[in-house]
Amino acid sequence: MLLDPGMDLTLRPMKYPHFFDRFKDAIKNTWTVDEVDLHADLADLARLTPAEQHLVSRLVAFFATGDTIVANNLVLNLYQHVNSPEGRLYLSRQLFEEAVHVQFYLNLLDTYVPDSDERAAAFAAVDNIPSIARKAEFCFTWIDSVFDLRRLETKADRRAFLLNVICFAACIEGLFFYGAFAYVYFLRSRGVLQGLASGTNWVFRDESMHMAFAFDVVDQVRAEEPDLFDAEMERQVRDMLAEAVECEVQFAEDLLEQGVSGLSPGDMREYLQHVADRRLQVLGIEPMYGSRNPFAFMELQDVQELSNFFERRVSAYQVGVTGSVTFDDDF
Fold first, then answer.
1. 3-class DSSP assignment, residue 260
2. Concatenated DSSP letters for 69-128?
3. Among residues 105, 183, 271, 317, which one is catalytic?
4. What is the pLDDT of residue 300?
5. How far is CA 299 from CA 128, 163, 228, in A?
6. What range defines the domain where residue 209 resides?
7. Quick check: is 6 in a domain?
8. pLDDT by 10-residue block (mean), the chain, 331 residues
9. Is 89 part of any domain?
10. Contact 301, 309 (CB under 8 A)
């Protein structure tokens, strides 16, 4: 089974071909940081209000280390326990994408924050900015929850690992990052920071695929070991997502504390609850909040890129693809 201890090395016959399909789809989505021009944003930065400048400063500080944390969990925890060579191919590709994201955000800081002392402060945000430190602590808690597991010998071990997978897919990549994307697209809807939005489009595609693969892993384990998914595990997932929402709401209150016209902490809470409910639905768990998406700028985001977070064929991610696009999906 997928979480059996050991390391299967046999790609033929292929036991999990859908993981290999994920790997091939990710290759089609290759991009480089050199394709993103951030320098065009400098004039916009100078025109932002003090409240908007505070928002961008906090957002950049979160970006400084967010993807590095995800990459560490991938290497330290996911790779050694997903016992599928096809799955490890995808995880290898994901690690490359996390490295590209880290480079993108490094360029972002170098461009937006020319002062070396200010850049150093941004990289130290996980220690010095309470709202970012709380999110980092949440991440590190779940990394540490399975760090000492070298083999998944028991059902308790496999449940702990699944909770780690679900946390990083649903809460960190699927909620923390999607909250950050909402700020970027809000600014774009105001006609500013188009370079940041352009790079974020690529990151958004990658993160959608990372979530899709992680939820594929969860679905596969559910098919092989359905008794792992009991009422207690469902409760833990709901509690985990509820805590993640509160972490991200605290971050929203920090970003918006000076009053950004057109964006309120209340709207951000509603949006985050809406996203959390979407993640629960994918996991086959009843939604907790029943909140709507209050942001028209998210619903109008490029449909070809975001047409379905969890589609089996991610043809929308391939440059030059042809075909039909629907306009009624819920984001």
1. strand
2. HHHHHIIIIIHHH---HHHHHHHHHHHHHHHHHHHHHHHHHHHH---HHHHHHHHTHHHH
3. 105
4. 63
5. 34, 30, 35
6. 17-26+37-317
7. no
8. 92 95 95 94 96 96 93 93 96 97 96 92 93 96 93 95 97 96 96 96 94 97 96 97 98 97 96 97 96 87 44 43 41 44
9. yes
10. no
Residues forming the annotated binding site?
A: 67, 98, 101, 173, 207, 210
In angstroms, the CA 291 to CA 57 distance is 28
| Binding-site annotation: residue ranges for Fe cation | 67, 98, 101, 173, 207, 210
Q: Provide the total of helices (H) and of strands (E) in the chain, helices listed first.
A: 15, 0
In a domain, 182, yes or no: yes
Cα–Cα distance list, 330 to 133, 149, 248 (Å): 31, 38, 21
Total number of domains in the chain: 1
* Whole-Å CA distances, 272 to 39, 64, 69, 81, 179: 30, 21, 21, 30, 7
- Would you state the pLDDT for residue 232? 95
Q: Let me know if residue 12 belongs to a domain.
A: no
Contact between 104 and 199 under an 8 Å Cβ cutoff? The reply is yes
Q: What is the CATH number of the domain that holds 204?
A: 1.10.620.20
Active site (annotated) includes residue 317:
no
Write phi, then psi, for 36 (nearest 5 degrees).
-105, 120
